Amino acid sequence: MPVTDFADCPIVELRRYQLRPQGFDELQRVFQGWLVDGQEQAGMRLGGQFRDRRSPDRFVWFRGFASMTRRQEALEAFYFGPAWRAHRDAANATMLDSDDVLLLRPTEPPHSPRPPAGAGGTGPTDSDPWAVVHVWSKVVDEAEALLCGGGHKILEQALGAPVAMWRTEPAENTFPRLPVQPGRHIVALTVFEDETQWRSATDRLRDDPGWRDVVERLDQAGVVTGIDLLQPTAASRHPRPVSRRRSG
């Protein structure tokens, strides 16, 4: 069944590219000019698109699919199609590494992203959103249950913002031309209205006793935590951040 929005996609990729120095703007020119529409027309749904605030030559983005079968069909249609053939050399010339990719599905229970920024007639804002991606690797059953259950609730309450979350899709990668990373992972995405809101949330999370307990249990289970601090691109379809004016 087709999906019309990234938030509804049961299959998701988190793609993290290391680019050549000063390659980010050139890739965005090609990506936004030609490759976004090409992927959407092939059946994919793009989500948030970001620049790493601490490593400006790094591009982080999400895309989704209606199923594993539709993923294979969409990737074949795009990568063997005219848009990619016309612009692949320019895109590939900006990249050092494009193989840091996680193949994901919704958690149980699901924690879907909010509607994208600018959706529903809200229009753009003057704020500079800050996005945070947590990636927990070497996840075991107990850690997945903790993060997707009580840990998710603690995380949202401490941050004061919705947290979208996905887990590893265990199905075989049926498009091996684009490799995905092995192992079990949990990925969370949180978007803040601006730097001030993010810093306040980070302070609350650091001081939250419930979250400290979660971190200790994850450490004991051997889970490895990574955090990406991101800036949405102009065309990003990241979840709409919660406004402090609306949330009080």
Describe the structure.
There is one protein chain. With 248 residues, the chain is an alpha+beta fold. It has a single domain (6-242), classed as Alpha-Beta Plaits, CATH 3.30.70. The chain has eight helices and eight strands, in the order βαββααββααββααβα. Helix 1 packs across helix 2 (68-79) and helix 1 (24-42) packs antiparallel against helix 3 (82-92). It is globular and about 55 Å long.
Q: What is the strand and helix layout of this fold?
A:
Blueprint: E1 11-19, H1 24-42, E2 45-52, E3 58-65, H2 68-79, H3 82-92, E4 95-111, E5 130-137, H4 141-148, H5 150-159, E6 164-168, E7 185-192, H6 195-207, H7 209-220, E8 224-232, H8 244-247
Antiparallel strand pairs: 1-3, 1-4, 2-3, 2-8, 4-6, 5-7, 5-8, 6-7
Distance between the termini: 39 Å
User: What is the percentage of strand-forming residues?
Assistant: 25-35%
CATH level-1 class:
Alpha Beta
Tally the beta strands. Answer: 8
The secondary-structure class comes to: alpha+beta
* DSSP summary: helix tally: 8
Major sheet strand order: 1-3-2-8-5-7-6-4
Average pLDDT metric: 94
Q: Can you write the helix and strand succession as a string? A: EHEEHHEEHHEEHHEH
Low-confidence stretches: 119-124
Helix content: 25-40%
| CATH third-level topology | Alpha-Beta Plaits
The profile of the biggest β sheet is: 8 strands, antiparallel, barrel
Named CATH architecture: 2-Layer Sandwich
Shape: globular
- The overall number of domains is 1
- Roughly how many Å is the radius of gyration? 18 Å
